[in-house]
Specification:
The structure is a homotetramer of 361-residue chains.
Chain A (H helix, E strand, L loop, with lengths): L22 H7 L5 H18 L3 E6 L9 H9 L5 E4 L1 H11 L5 E2 L6 H6 L2 E4 L2 E4 H15 L9 H16 L4 H8 L3 E2 L7 H9 L11 H14 L3 E6 L2 H17 L6 E8 L13 H6 L3 E11 L2 H13 L2 H7 L5 E2 L5 E3 L2 E3 L13
Parallel strand pairs in A: 1-2, 1-7, 2-6, 7-8, 8-9
Antiparallel strand pairs in A: 3-5, 4-5, 10-11, 11-12
Helix pairs in contact in A: 1-13, 2-13, 3-8, 6-9, 7-8, 10-11
């Protein structure tokens, strides 16, 4: 009776529960189940492929991951060079700075009385609380730091490197900004004006209008040149938002000025948004291929899941097989301590897109 | 500057990645992060509390979990008695039967050409494929089995016990139905008419109209009496749907006829639906309290996640600390091999709700 | 510069706001926008095509639509014969009965204190409240009615017709059940055991165990025969759930026993669930084609929206062009007042699937 | 039997379908139903209250609304002054510019072959297509325009005003940018670096590194001063994203420097994101109150719906009662044609937050 079909080749292998399985064991067993479980297991494989290949791995970070307890996972991914370049929302950097400075976020409840919280000057992020006076003091600290910089335009990449350095020197604590500083990993924050980092910077102008010049247009140019200087990229996106699009537009612009640089060769996204409302956060990786953001043959996977579940499992699993690949990775080397960064010894302009080849007309 | 607030007591502890962490390690570290990660960690604790207490644990199973590779996780939960009574959609039992009978589901793609699949008689469940001719043969097998039963009404609980027994005797394979048969765990399927199990039963009537009498109203009565006979319940719900509501209505009806039996003392749900469209699948556990489905002081947690990610991790974590609690559990004992089941030696009628106390007027 | 592409043919026409536009005007203007707005406009066209064609239109009703204020929209669709056969969850029929009996649901809040609600015996459905004592009295009323029926098995279709008739005779009020009774439109409720209708029926057995025999397996057979007797169907699904699958399984089973009867020729669903978790409620209409639930060339559209927004707009829009199509519709005629229903004068068995042609082997 | 409860006061009024109802009629009838339908009806009332009060109404625009056919709805809201100040993603302004320049977006399909689209240089936004060569030509046009500006920093507000003016003078066509130019309504774009507008600006630097200086920190200061200069604000948010947060941070920063300025007095959001993953796009308006983004007694409503359904209905409904309120509105008056904008004749600095009162310490 059974008709053999080309569609019926690889059976589902039901997940079998055993004692003391590690994260790696669990994800390997999830490769042959279905739905988002399979996708998360595939994400593990795709990330391993990125590490084994000669690509620059971008990490996009959106959603309240730092406040939500994942900042040291991201710091770990940076420090161990599971990723090479970070694009983040301002909020994730701000909440990271908050904890690196020794303050805390707190376990709260989504059912809390927000009027009572407001009266006690406690700010809520879903089920997580923080002290508003401490936030205000952060803003002032950022303003103060900003006034120590030269009164000239800084890309967010340069600004955040300096901020990470100052944080590391004054606190000596682990975090996203300090890990990136120490590992010489660039961080871009294209929407810095829409965050408390930006608010802190803006307060530096209370001292003088010449402070707080942030050159976000320079970031666009620099990120495109980064890809032109070292073609071959991969994208790991947590949560969509501006980082997801910024990583993709860098790829598109690099390709326009330097045809053949191509879209990402690998793409992995862990998102909660869905495609069918048309927004960029939920956009599928297939759609990205129509734009050339992603190569036609790119290994890719979308995991529809909250990163607070998916990332601890995935990052833990990566530690088991990854160190070997990490040791042998041909990863890019950066210098970040000036207006002009370098990648593998080549300068990366923020003033002009420097095509290796001239663009096709 | 910092004002101490009663809201700022328990700091978030950022998740730290280490090598070779087990599922249990990972969930313990997730207890102090935020959002759905914290909720999943809390689910682990709540389930452990259920096991340590003297309650009858209901498991509701909806969504395509059997086709999606989780049937042996559910079988494990039954066999090891992490749960005492199962309420399932028909599809999950049907896809379980399919694999227990030696057929398979297959790894597929959500981007497959459905017209091509239809031409090859392959049925798709998102990213999972199955053979339609094999499904048709299942239906006939179910019809054949059904004609071996006495021509009288069966509750789904009795019918499924007999089906599980027949499956076990003819295949000797692990699965949900066979595990429940062997562990004497009752399974209810209130929406059996909306499934291929029901379709198979309906085809038994091609032999004679007296076959396939399923007494779903008896299930309602039996499930309420089950709670009246052994007050103190907990609810573990995967995916919402009819099982979620059926477990709750049993509690409500038991309370009506036998006041003080009360709502569930523990409730844990892993769902992807949301509350704000008003449907029962996404309804919050707080809402359940207004109905008395859940005790006012019940330990409860909702995890918004795909069960194919959350359940492998959660069930794996439960194996580490649970065996001790499992060994000492005061779990109910059932006999299921007739029209009248028993719990802890007491008969459970499907004909009349037998209140211990008379209902309040 | 512009390269003409076959993909760039029909421009988006931006929606233009004008005063005093009707629902029909608005939906027509939405046909050339994007995303779910376009889908809702397409749903309007697809439904009009159903009305103009010679098909039996099934309506599936899930989610708390009756409690949520849409029961008279559904009653209108039945009374005016925009649909021919209804498949509903029990809850929607129960909440309909509640209001038809003169009780009300109430405007509430999702932020209400559920413990306070429980103390006042108020039940909450997201932002909507109801009186628990009134619900209990409904259950008793249903039990009482059930004991007036012959002590023999009833399909839900027959039972609900009798219930609608009794409701109409005792209240004279509009509603889903009474509209279906008066318009001779059958209602199936495959998951009746998972609802307060089922709970009420179960309480009839407190009088005698011979009451409350519901033959849900008969419903499966009857619904398949309905399609075999009058091939050519369309599916309008609100909210997924058991009604969505029941309508589809009837089509699949009809096709199996009477090849060529085919899948639905039109399909329209308004759902909030998504496909990527694998559940049936969110399953795409493309997936349905792999199963043969839907014809390969079926006009189809999925609208991802809360029915409480989409349905008032869509049903209002349908009133403008529809009366002409309604008047000329070749709609099926039913008799429902006995164990054996008829469609267009032909009997529809609930005891045996009566293939017009023998099934292919 | 019925116990009167304070919770059971306002009955649900089922929606009644009638012919030729206008958008306004429909929304009024939806005020007494449930779930998101009621929320959309409430949004209509809340917006009317904003118009009747003496507040500055901010509009946040995220998601692919311009590409998706809503740009003329937004232009209408600006031109008729249903809103006073716009905060937008770059993409919505870019796609608006694209159509104002006479190019089109096209009706497409989410099931299109993205490799084929890439080969034909067609870019996909879910179910909507556009020509990549036309997009490239837009970028060059933006670059060209940018080189006509003085080589000095521009806030996005000043830059977009100049861009709107240039667009209006060269095309004479309706759109978001041109409507804002003509109505003297400021537009902020805090994440301009994460968009094709930003990419176009960056290409101006191919001419000279002194072009394309965008002062996003100035936007932060200017938006706070805007609120300090004219206290009393309302927030209408479509789709979350950076605009939602930017509108809120302006309010928080204004309050910090000028205590008593307060949070928004009205807030209305139409979003598809949910709160429980912790991201800002889905954050509840209750949570906003903990931060002081929203006044404790603010009239507020969240509508969980795709804006392509909700906004055409809502904007159409507003036209019926609104003209009277529009005529009598005490709306702010702006001048925008220089580095320093004015509101109601008062200058609004982008260099220093100018508190009316000194901040509390």
């Amino acid at each position: 009776m059974k008709k053999t079909s080309r569609f019926l080749e690889t059976p589902i292998e039901p997940f079998v529960v055993e004692r003391d399985q590690t994260a790696e064991d669990i994800l390997v067993r999830m490769e042959r189940i279905s739905f988002q479980g399979r996708n998360l297991a595939t994400a593990n494989r795709v990330w391993q492929k990125m590490l084994a290949d000669d690509v620059t791995i971008f990490l996009g970070v959106a959603g309240a991951l730092s406040a939500g307890g994942l900042r040291l996972v991201i710091a770990h991914l940076i420090a161990e060079r599971y990723v090479d370049c970070v694009v983040s929302t301002g909020a994730n950097l701000y909440h990271d700075l908050h904890e690196t400075r020794g303050r805390r976020h707190y376990v709260g409840s989504p059912h809390a009385d927000d009027t009572a919280l407001a009266n006690e000057r406690v700010d809520r992020v879903y089920d997580t609380f923080a002290s508003e006076p401490e936030f205000i003091e952060n803003d002032e600290w950022i303003a103060g730091f900003t006034t120590t910089l030269d009164p000239r335009p800084y890309t967010t990449r340069e600004y955040l490197y300096e901020l990470g350095g100052h944080l590391w020197r004054t606190t000596g604590r682990e975090g996203i900004l300090t890990a990136a500083y120490r590992a010489h990993v660039p961080i871009f924050c294209p929407a810095i004006a829409d965050s408390s980092i930006g608010m802190g910077i803006s307060q530096a102008r209370q001292q003088s209008a010449e402070y707080g010049q942030i050159d976000v247009i320079g970031d666009i140019i620099e990120s495109a040149n980064l890809i032109i200087r070292r073609p071959g990229t991969a994208s790991v996106v947590l949560g969509g938002g501006t980082p997801k699009n910024f990583i993709n537009q860098a790829s598109v612009q690099a390709e326009f000025f330097s045809p053949g640089v191509g879209g990402h060769r690998y793409a992995l996204q862990i998102v909660t948004d869905v495609p069918h409302f048309g927004g960029a956060s939920g956009a599928s990786l297939e759609e990205a291929q129509s734009w050339g953001k992603l190569a036609a043959d790119a290994a890719r996977v979308t995991v529809t899941a909250d990163a607070t579940i998916a990332l601890p499992l995935l990052a833990s699993a990566l530690t088991s097989p990854a160190p070997a690949s990490l040791a042998s990775r041909r990863r890019p080397t950066f210098t970040l301590a000036s207006r002009v960064m370098t990648i593998d010894g080549k300068s990366v302009s923020s003033e002009r897109i420097e095509a290796v080849h001239e663009p096709a007309v």
